[in-house]
């Protein structure tokens, strides 16, 4: 899936064996699965689609192409809001967990509200520090590893974990609760990143609009 249809037929010609979306449809190409999975195929895609915002779906049987298209479209919305020098190709196979977590943002918000309720009421700065520490700890790190990952002192990690144990209580000792807390933390992190990207695109769009406005004659 592509952000824009500019020169899409030239892209198709460069890639070779592929089908192009019809006029009026979201711009995209149906390509052989080997291009999405193999190292050489990925290199070819990255070379041809350089500076284009594009997302490549997972390889599926032809009858399941619609599912791959949906995944690629969703990933494009999350990661690549515009063409340009900082754009590029992303692959669904590299973002499976993120897509699974954010396939239903309403459910993700519900999970966040339920599992991260103990952090409600904290200042944004304190909440951010505790969330980063908790996420690293849930990933299986001990205090020294968390400290190294977050560039803080191990004693600071232990202090924060004592705070978190007071806030969450027995939930941090329950495997299912820990799993859902980690899902909630990662969902919030992913949604915050997508929001920042959309906001940046909005700012660039408004700036470009101001630049295009005609200068009034005196």
From TrEMBL:
- Locate the transmembrane regions by residue number: none
- Coiled-coil-forming residues are none
> Where is the region Disordered?
196-218
Q: Which domain of life is it from?
A: Bacteria
Q: Which InterPro entries does this entry report, sorted A to Z?
A: CdaR-like_regulators (IPR051448), PucR_C-HTH_dom (IPR025736), PucR_C-HTH_sf (IPR042070)
Q: Which intervals hold domain PucR C-terminal helix-turn-helix?
A: 132-186
**Can you say what this protein is called?**
PucR family transcriptional regulator
Q: Which organism is it from?
A: Streptomyces inhibens
């Amino acid at each position: 899936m592509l952000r824009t249809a500019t020169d899409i037929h030239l892209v198709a010609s460069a890639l070779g064996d592929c089908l192009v979306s019809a006029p009026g449809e979201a711009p995209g190409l149906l390509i052989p699965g080997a291009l999405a999975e193999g190292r050489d195929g990925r290199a070819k895609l990255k070379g041809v689609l350089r500076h284009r915002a594009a997302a490549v779906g997972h390889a599926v049987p032809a009858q399941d192409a619609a599912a791959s298209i949906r995944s690629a479209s969703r990933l494009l919305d999350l990661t690549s809001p515009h063409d340009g020098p900082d754009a590029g190709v992303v692959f669904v196979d590299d973002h499976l967990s993120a897509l699974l977590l954010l396939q239903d943002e309403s459910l993700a918000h519900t999970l966040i509200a339920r599992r991260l309720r103990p952090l409600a009421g904290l200042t944004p700065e304190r909440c951010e520090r505790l969330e980063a520490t908790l996420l690293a700890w849930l990933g299986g790190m001990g205090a020294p590893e968390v400290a190294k990952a977050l560039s803080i002192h191990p004693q600071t990690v232990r202090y924060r974990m004592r705070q978190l144990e007071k806030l969450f209580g027995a939930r941090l000792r329950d495997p299912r609760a820990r799993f859902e807390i980690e899902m909630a933390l990662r969902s919030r992190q992913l949604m915050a990143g997508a929001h920042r990207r959309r906001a940046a695109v909005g700012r660039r769009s408004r700036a470009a609009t101001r630049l295009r406005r005609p200068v009034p004659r005196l």
